[in-house]
């Protein structure tokens, strides 16, 4: 028994060591990633359930490291958050999104709103609204083309400060939504004080809502809650027609998910979803 215990311990240390090594490797590779232009953005369409039309997109970062190959954001974003590198990466994402919006506009496509994910570190301090309005001005892009997603966890981490920053975005005319909604702990009293436009229903509930009564009830409750608060709803992770129909029947506004499209490169998004503005 003593022997097994020792092996178990050794196993855990090795696993932890491997994790730390991988994290260090990624953190080092991230150091050059911006300069080496290893990041791109993919865009995933968002559809309005009443019209079936594309009303927006979410920008999702992709990293193809010259030394490590493709690394998923689920793996490297937490590491970049830990190391502080997320601030520079997050600024690149904002600038690249706005630059792309400007380019599509100059090519004569009808405007579409693109949502960008924000990390907690970007919310600290008071610089974010200034940074973003500066980028919009730099590219001469109207504020309502941009949407900002913050997770429910960010929103509730430091609610008073979050409310201040959200008010600044509201004043700038930039829409905001609460991502991964339902996975955190926002109290009703805070939620009604958050000046956000939309609740994004977490994909974990959407995944099982056609088979699990509890998840069905949760999604329905979030939609009613949003309606009471004057907010819109978007369901993410929609993979089937059955999910789409159910969401439509219970009053969800918009959907996003593989059933419509995976996140795709900018040019592909343009070819498949953007409409000419010249007519
Ligand atoms: P998220 O913001 O919740 O983004 C949704 C994730 O679900 C994306 O994964 C998307 O590709 C995936 N997805 C979309 N539709 C479906 C579907 O129908 N089924 C399934 N199973 N998945 C679907 P992705 O692109 O790997 O991003 C993972 C997470 O990384 C994001 O979760 C977000 O938290 C973070 N992330 C991605 N890009 C950025 C970024 O530019 N900045 C920051 N701060 N975080 C980002
Ligand atoms: Ca998101
Ligand atoms: Ca999400
Ligand atoms: Ca998520």
UniProtKB/TrEMBL annotation:
Superkingdom, taxonomy of origin: Bacteria
Domain EAL span(s) in chain numbering: 23-277
Descriptive protein name: cyclic-guanylate-specific phosphodiesterase
Native species: Marinomonas profundimaris
Stretch of the intact protein here: 335 to 613 of 616
């Amino acid at each position: 028994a003593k022997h097994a215990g020792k092996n178990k311990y050794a196993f855990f240390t090795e696993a932890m060591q491997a994790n730390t090594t991988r994290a260090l490797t990624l953190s080092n590779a991230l150091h050059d990633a911006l300069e080496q232009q290893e990041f791109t953005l993919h865009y995933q369409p968002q559809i309005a359930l009443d019209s079936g039309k594309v009303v927006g997109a979410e920008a999702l970062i992709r990293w193809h490291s010259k030394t490590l190959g493709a690394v998923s954001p689920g793996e490297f974003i937490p590491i970049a958050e830990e190391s502080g590198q997320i601030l520079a990466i997050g600024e690149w994402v904002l600038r690249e999104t706005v630059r792309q919006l400007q380019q599509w506009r100059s090519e004569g496509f009808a405007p579409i709103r693109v949502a960008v994910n924000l990390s907690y570190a970007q919310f600290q301090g008071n610089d974010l609204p200034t940074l973003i309005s500066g980028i919009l001005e730099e590219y001469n892009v109207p504020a309502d083309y941009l949407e900002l997603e913050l997770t429910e966890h960010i929103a509730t981490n430091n609610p008073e400060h979050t409310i201040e920053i959200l008010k600044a975005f509201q004043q700038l005319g930039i829409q905001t939504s609460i991502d991964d909604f339902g996975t955190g702990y926002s109290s009703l009293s805070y939620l009604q004080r958050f000046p956000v436009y939309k609740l994004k229903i977490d994909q974990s509930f959407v995944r099982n809502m056609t088979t699990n009564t509890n998840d069905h009830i949760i999604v329905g409750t979030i939609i009613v809650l949003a309606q009471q608060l004057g907010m819109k709803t978007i369901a993410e992770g929609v993979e089937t027609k059955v999910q789409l129909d159910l969401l439509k029947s219970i009053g969800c506004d918009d959907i996003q998910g593989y059933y419509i499209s995976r996140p795709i490169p900018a040019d592909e998004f343009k070819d498949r979803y953007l409409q000419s503005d010249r007519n």
